[in-house]
Amino acid sequence: MDTNHPDRLAAADDVAERFHRWYYDNGVWETVRFLGVPCLKSVMDLWNYQEILFELKPSLIVEFGTRHGGSALYFSMIGQGINPLLRVLTVDIEDHLLDPQVSRVPAIEFMKCSSTDSAVAARITELRNSLPGPMFAILDSDHHQPHVLQEMLSLRSVMRSGDYLVVEDSNINGHPVLPGWGPGPFEAIAEYVRQFPDDYVRDEARECKFGFTFAPAGFLRRA
Ligand SMILES: C[S@@+](CC[C@H](N)C(=O)[O-])C[C@H]1O[C@@H](n2cnc3c(N)ncnc32)[C@H](O)[C@@H]1O
């Protein structure tokens, strides 16, 4: 059987897209838990992140958009399993949903402010000065294009060659879910790449690895 025949590849793409829509439109992602804490993601993306973290071996993980803290908890446990000195900085404008289990983890630092506040970039710079090694950053806060673009711009001076950035939820506004949502992360990435075409290399192999991702065009390695 020729698994690379164009008809079979097109059929596989169709299955992956329908699974993506089923997973998103039925809110499966909203029911995902890590050690009991809501973690609002695609489980395929979580496994990709685990593999990226093992390859990258970061000393710092920066997350914009904490919510309950399930993803920060996931990143801290995977990251510390790889590098016991790892720290996680997670930023949100709200903390009323933050799970106490997450607040008790010494490796996790929570900042209550907007991700685009200049204090955030300043704190990242401080942490980087005390934690030699690569950084993994993930954007999952306000998904409107201007905000995501501002987040990418604020990270520009703190990202170094070899660091890894994931811009989540670029699947909305019809890529392929929530058509008509309006310009979001996908459009922010396109605008950033238009302004700074040489900053990042798109990691398409990661996007494709598990059939679908919530972050199309959003797996980016700093050049
Ligand atoms: C999708 S949730 C984050 C989910 C979490 N990362 C996870 O995977 O479980 C988005 C969060 O972004 C926060 N948020 C919205 N605007 C923000 C901003 N300007 N700066 C930081 N966080 C913001 C919201 O309060 C919300 O908790």
UniProtKB/TrEMBL annotation:
Record carries keyword Transit peptide: no
Keywords, sorted A to Z: Methyltransferase, Transferase
One MF annotation (Gene Ontology) recorded for this entry: methyltransferase activity
GO cellular component: plasma membrane
One GO process term, biological-process aspect: lipid biosynthetic process
Superkingdom assignment: Bacteria
Record bears the keyword Methyltransferase: yes
Entry-linked InterPro entries: RNMT_CmcI, SAM-dependent_MTases_sf
Matching SUPFAM superfamilies: S-adenosyl-L-methionine-dependent methyltransferases (SSF53335)
Annotated protein name in UniProt: Predicted Cephalosporin hydroxylase
Species whose genome carries this gene: Aromatoleum aromaticum (strain DSM 19018 / LMG 30748 / EbN1)
Lineage of the species this protein comes from: Bacteria, Pseudomonadati, Pseudomonadota, Betaproteobacteria, Rhodocyclales
